[in-house]
User: Fold Zinc protease from Anseongella ginsenosidimutans.
Amino acid sequence: MNVSRTILTGLFGLGVSFALQAQDPGKELPLNPEVSTGTLSNGLTYYIQHNEKPENRAELRLVVKAGSILENDAQQGLAHFVEHMAFNGTKNFSKNELINFLERSGVRFGAHLNAYTSFDETVYMLSLPTDTVEVFKTGFQVLEDWAHNLSFNPEEIEKERGVVLEEWRLRLGAAQRMQQQYFPTLLYQSRYADRLPIGKPEIIENFEHPELISFYKDWYRPGLMAVIAVGDFDVAAVEALIKKHFGSISPVQSPRDRTEYTLPDHTEPQVSIVTDKEAQYIQLSVYYKRPAVKVETEADYMKLLERSLYNKMLNDRINEIRQQPDAPFLFAVSSVSAFISNKDAYVLASVPKEGQVRAALTTLLKENLRVQRFGFTPTELERAKTDILNSYENSWSERDKRENRAFIDEYINHFLKDEASPGIEFEYAFVKEHLDEIGVEELNTLAGSLISDSNRVVILTAPENQKDSLPSEEELLAILNNSSGLEVSPYEDVVADKPLFSEELSPAKIVSREQIEEIGVTKLELENGVEVFLKPTDFKNKEVLFRAYSPGGTSLYPDEDYLEAANATGILTQSGIAGFEEKVLRKLLEGKTVGVAPYISTLEEGFSGSANIDDIETLFQLTYLYFTQPRFDSDALKTWQARQLTFLQNKDKSPMSVYGDTLRSVMNSYAARYAPLTPEMVRELEFERMQEVYADRFADAGDFAFFLVGSFDLDSIQPLLQTYLGNLPSSGREESWKNLNISPPEGVISKEVYKGSEPQSRVTLVFTGQTDYDRMKNAQLAILGEALQIKLRESLREDAGGVYGVGVNTSISKFPEERYSVSVAFGCAPDNVEKLMGLVLQEIEKMKESGPLQSDLDKVIAIRKREHETALKENGYWISLLAGSYEMKRDPAAAQEFFEASLQQVSPDNLKKLAGEYFDKSNYIKVVLYPEKEKLSGN
Assistant:
């Protein structure tokens, strides 16, 4: 369904009460009239919808109602393995030819070509251009091959064992180990507890090929499949393609029964307390499992709205508590949503502070009880309704600009779960008509219905070194059972007693105006020196993106002030603004689509934000107040410190945290300001110095440039610019960032980190050094990196079966000094580190000797062209271009010409020269993570 962002934050359920008297409770919700759907004679279902965002693109899905839940004991992990084999040879695409063909057509593996396997379904995803007819038609051949023509080449199966094992390996760690222990409790006596999609490594390593093929033949059949197509195409033509490719697939004779597995009920509460030596913090979750609510009728939709209102209001209260320094938890949330199979779950979840598990649980139960006894206030309900209606209005306003992917999940759920998908036209009209029928009375009874004595599960996970301070199972259950006797008082809804902005401002003058006609940009200079770049677009109907930039940043402060400078804006944004504390400001902005926040980074300070055009004045008001009336609350700092101290307490137990800190330190030559954060550093932060740094960075707007891109017209927005930006303080000072001369070390640097108990390694290889900045070289180095990534994927993953994925990142920076960087990163088995490193260096040598293959270069160029076509119609691309061009002192109007030239000028020969220049074997950094036992064994 087209449920808004706000609604999706939680779905709480209850009986519909009198609120349904104004509509037809049993009336079924319609299917979106824009989608054409049908069922072929063999049982395959299809959904087809014409949509023109993005232009000349389509999203295709093959949905199979079969996942790991259908595996027998000898097949655990094979539903997922079948998904992998879909990319390793089919009847019409041998071995890797499928990926090769799609990449040549501009389809990026991973982003546009992918799949996932869950408990109950497997979904294959394909994003295609529609303006190349043969490529688009071939997409349906790909879907058909996935549906019934996988090759299962024995050699490819053996290779893929290693890839799937590496995917399993990436998930190893404290969270996975603890999950293995508590899942049987959480999924009480259900098949789901024994059918995690990743499977069992011993089965992945040793299964017989017929088991894999058997799963595919048993469950990949038309009656369990749907084809979904949404995009810029002719619906009738796509329907013909679906019938052509899928209509002839024979239905399975005497098919196996597709059992719908469920979670059994239990009357006794289930508790699991699990600790792990590498866990970093405590997590506590209480689940009240309840019958699933399927949204099929108008009555169901009213339930959805009630849940949404309840969820929003209760979580707003919990967030107010979380922001207090003496709160017993760092994070907390209350939600009810779909859980698994036949169950929804009402969940009270938190990250308690050390020693405060009991208090955290009690606090959450008290908030639920407070609603039971005293209800929500009328002002809370009014704000929640305003916010939800605003979300629907925004979605409706953008109904002709919704992108293809926005529809896909709706139709997947319609097929898999029979969940309604009525479309935003219906939903917005329904909500406008019926939202006000929901009163405080209905919602005030909701809390009591969510908590019951049956189907209760408590999961507590924690660091092993805190085991002795944890409550016992009996203590946790006693808190739950006795919660009705807690003392609570009515909630006091503290709201603003004045408007956000009341200052009288006179519009400033515009002293200059410049048109960049080639790209439709207007540049204004206001009398206080502020520069504003404006690009109106019609890509969205209401979206406006906002940025501001000024050179300086944390580079202007000594090491002893670095943390204050780096964290000042984080504390500021949790403190509110002007005369409004954060919780009051949040309520004041309820129902508006606006957000803006200042930042201070290494070389700059500025703002980042967005707004609905209807709320754009509020964005400017907030920006003005962040300049002129910033608010720092010492409680916000205390809350932040408590959060950081909790996470830091056991950070050194986490292999990935230690590895990440080591890599950062090495890359920055162990500079003091980039040292890993310690509890002492957190405790010593100076509140007053934060305020001083922030005031200094935002004291003078005269060296700021502002950028706006989106749905506005110049005549309407210009007075707002003059009023709010034109009155920002300006003293005419000139400044820039400072080069602190913090660079990676020269020479060959090799660092091993021994941490963790799992057979798990991480490898990062970085070639870096000084260079002369050249924009064309930077673009071509990025192309070289993408070509190298294709080759490493083939070598390390497809041929060697040694990794799940490998990443290559490149850059040539201009500021604060001219440097290049090419990094290669992957995870693997410890025993394979040296072998895979050898393969990486081997592929790099090939690049240096002869450059990339022209065929790989053609793929990269095709992908970049296609992605650029789409980016040109996105506000995000343009605001990044304008801000980046300003910072780099470039002409933004030349960007398109440069992009085309960067592709035209690239060749294997010039990339060979580039590889020779930047892959310097005498100047690189290698950091490798090994498990602790490797060090103990002397390997």
Observations:
- The first helix runs from residue 5 to 8.
- The chain has 32 helices and 23 strands.
- The chain has four domains: 35-246, 262-399+415-485, 510-725, 748-937.
